[in-house]
# Entry
Amino acid sequence: MIPLIDLNRWRAGDREAVAAETDAALQESGFLMVSGHGVSVELRAEVRAAAKRFFALPAERKLPYTAPVSGRGWIPIGKEANAFYGVEADAARADLKESYTIGREHRTGDPALDEAWFKPNVWPDEVPELAGLCAEYAQAVRALNEELLRICAVALGLDEDWLVVRSRNSPHTFNVNRYPPLSETGVPLDGQFRVGPHTDWGMLTILDRQVGYGGLQIQTLDGAWIDAPHVENAFTINVGDLLERWTGNRWRSTRHRVLPPPRQSPGEELISLIVFLEADFDLEITTLPAPISRRQDYPPVRTADFYLERSEAATVN
# Structure
């Protein structure tokens, strides 16, 4: 259901087969795993270690770095509640996670867009090494994203750079999510999760995750929830709502969730590295024509407007 694709095959010239396998995976489940991505184990471990040093600080030391959902900085537990597109999030059952979120140091040339979506990153004085490590990781993942977008374009029968050139001015949001243990959160409410059932907002999400009892689950077409497979050193990739809309439901933005902290392992703490890749925020997304697309009735939407709606819905006041 969720295949593992070795990107070295694409680089070695097995392009049509890799594109076809990607297309099939994104139609069936909206998810795939990739190996051969070239992002080192050591770098990922160093990012996690630095982030843990920040998260371990007392709350009053972290408060100066507080940011809203879709902002840049620290998002405390209780400030974000994820839900499906078009469904109001339950603020009483906010996600049992804290996040440190950053984005590209970039300017589009549009002052309004830059002010709203490209605010300066905020870095904790207490963990000075976090900035350089996150920048190095984000740069490596952005390069991987361009390669994946080329594969996706070939899979759709488009020019290889078609998606790349339409996403060069996007924020590329990077979240380090900490999922605290049960011993810290207390017993979750019924229907409360580390991350509530939701779909992602953008084009592709690139996830490096740790496995545990309270890990990632994916909803199948028949409504069942299954544990996401995990392969050591592979990244998990999934489609977001914007790319589903762009491809007219050819590719699925699949509901997924992160289970609550488990009773089986009350000390379990997990850290995920998640990079959300978007289209340009000044771009109007119009569904691709048939036979690429399966659905033609989506109205055009500007990426920035779509994201603003989603971020406001996920924010707990």
